[in-house]
Design a protein that fits this description.
Layout (H helix, E strand, L loop, with lengths): L67 E3 L3 E2 L11 E4 L7 E3 L14 H33 L3 H29 L1 H20 L4 H29 L4 H32 L2 H21 L5 E2 L6 H24 L4 H21 L9 H4 L2 H31 L4 H6 L2 H10 L3 H8 L1 H22 L6 H28 L7 H33 L5 H26 L31
Antiparallel strand pairs: 1-2, 1-5, 3-4
Amino acid sequence: MSGTRGNERPGAAKPPTPSGGDPEAGPGGPGPGFADSAGRGGPAQAAEGSGPVGLSSAGGRAESPGAVEAEGRGTSGPVGVDSPGPAGPPSPGVPGFRAPGPVAPGSPQRGGRSPKAALALLASTQLLLIMDTAIINVALPSVGDDLGSGSAGLSWVANAFLITFGGLLLLGGRAADLLGHRRVFLGGLGVLGVASAVGGAAGTVEVLVGARAVQGAGAAFAAAAALALVLNLFPDGPDRHKALGAFAAMGGLGGVLGTVLGGVLTDLLGWRSTLWLNVIGALVLAVLAPRLLDGSTRSAERGFDIGGALTATAGLGLVAYGLVGAGEAGWTSARTLGAFAGGVVLLAAFAALEKRIARPLVPPAVLRRPTLRLANCLSALAQMALFPMFFLVSLYLQSVLDQTPLHGGLGLLPLSLVVVATAPRTGQLIDRLGLRATMSLGFTLLFLGTLWLALALAAEGTVVSTVLAPSLVLGVALPLVMVTTNVAATADAAPGETGLASGLINTSQQFGSVLGLAVLVAVATARTDALGATGAADETAGFKAALLVGAVFAASAALLSFRLRLPAPVSAPVSAPVSALPHQDRVGGAPE
C-alpha cells in the first residue's frame, strides 16, 4: 500500500456473524455499538481489514453503530444509492449492512433516480440556506424603517437565525441518521418555508425575530441532512470530491449571492421579498425531493439520546447567544459571560453523559479521530476569515464608497463567478496534488487574498482599485478550503455516521462564522472608535484592522493544514480473492 497514491479504502474482510435482532435491519441486525480502542466490537466484531464502509481501530477509526435500513424494504444497498446488481457480502464496518455489487459512477439509484439530479437538488439547498445567512444583512436598514425598530432589535433579526442554526446542526445530523435523511431533509425544508412566510408577513420586529429563530431550526435540520445525503450518494474518492466541489461552490456562491440579491430584492421589491424567496425555494425543493432522493437511508439503531440532545443543543445555543450578543452587550458584560459559562457547563455535562450511555448522540470514539478533529478546526478557521469578510466588504462599499445596496452587492459578483469556475476542478486538483497539498494551497491563497484586501482598502478608492483583484484570489481559495476540509472531515464516516459527520462539520462552519463575525466586527468598531469615528478614513482603518485579524486566522489554518494525516489504510487479508476486493478509491492523489 505504501506505493499507492493517496488514502485507499481497506480491502475485503470476513462477514460478521449474523445476530438475528431487528427484522427490518437485514440479516445482520443492529450492532452492539462502537468498537473499543482495541477494535473489539462485541458479537458483530469486525475482522482486520474492514470492507468499504470502515477502517479498523488501528487506523484511528471506530466502527459504526447500527445498520442501514431501507424504509419498509429491509436492508438497503449503499446509503442513498441502490445497486442494480446483486448485493455483495455483508460489510463488517456496519452490522446488518450489505455491500453492493459493482456500480459504475453515475449509476441510477432505486427507481431510476439520477445521482447527478439529486446532487443538483442538494447543492441548490445549500445555496438557499447559506444565502439566507447573508441576504438579511443588506435588508436590515429597510426592516428598521418599516417596522420602526432600533439597531438593538434589528441585530436580533439576524442573530436569532444564527443561534438556532448553529445550536441545532449537531442534533439535526444525528436525527437524520436515526429517522431517515430524506425525511429529516423534507421536515427541515417545511419548517423553513412556513417560518419564512410568517416572517414575510410580520407586522412587528418581535414576530420577525421569532420567525427567524424557527427559520434557523429548519435550516439546521435541512443542512445536516443535505450534506449527509451527498456523502451517501457518492463513495469516497474522485466522484465524492467532484460532488463536494459542486456542494461547496453553491455554499460559497450563496454567501456572495445573498449580498447581491439582498440589494437587488430590497431595492426593487422591498425587504419582505427576501423572506418570500425562501418560501418559493423551499417549496420547489420539497416538491422535487421525493422524486430525486432515495428514502432508504436510515440507521437500524434504536433509541435516542435525549439527555445528550438537550445538553448539546442548549450548550451550543448559549455559546452562540453569547457570541452574537457580545458586540451589543460587550465581551465582559454579565450577559455575555453568563451565556458562555452556562454553555460551557452544559457542554461539559454533555461530554460526561456521552461516556456513560449505550447509544450516545456523539460517540466519544468519533471525536478521538485526529483527522476529524483537525478538519473541523480548520473548517472553523476558514469561516472565521471568510464569512465576516463578505459582511465587512459590503459595509465598506456602501458606507465608505457610497455604493447603493445593489451596486455594493454587484461588487462581489466577480468573486462568485470565480468560485463557480474553480469548485468543479477542485476534485481534479486533489487527485493530482493530494488532499493535504490542495488544502494547504487553499489556505495560503485565503491568507494572501485577505491580506491583500486589507492593505488595498482606501477611503478614496474604487471597487476596481480596492476590491476586485484580491476578491478573485479569494474566489479561488474559497472552494479549495471548503472542499478539502469537508473531504477530510467525512473521509472515514461509515454509512450510519454520515448525518453525524455532516452535523459536526456544519456546526464547525457555523460557529466559525459566528465567532469570526463577532470578533472582526468588534475589532473594526474598536479601531474606528479609537480614531474618533469622524469620517470615511476612520471607518476604513477599522475595516483594515479587522481584515488583518482575518488574515491571521487564515495563516494559522495554513500552518495547521500541514499536520493533516489521513487514516492509514488497512491491508486486505492475503487469503482474500481478488474478486472479493471492493473498488478502492483515493482520498488524495499524492502520498500524504
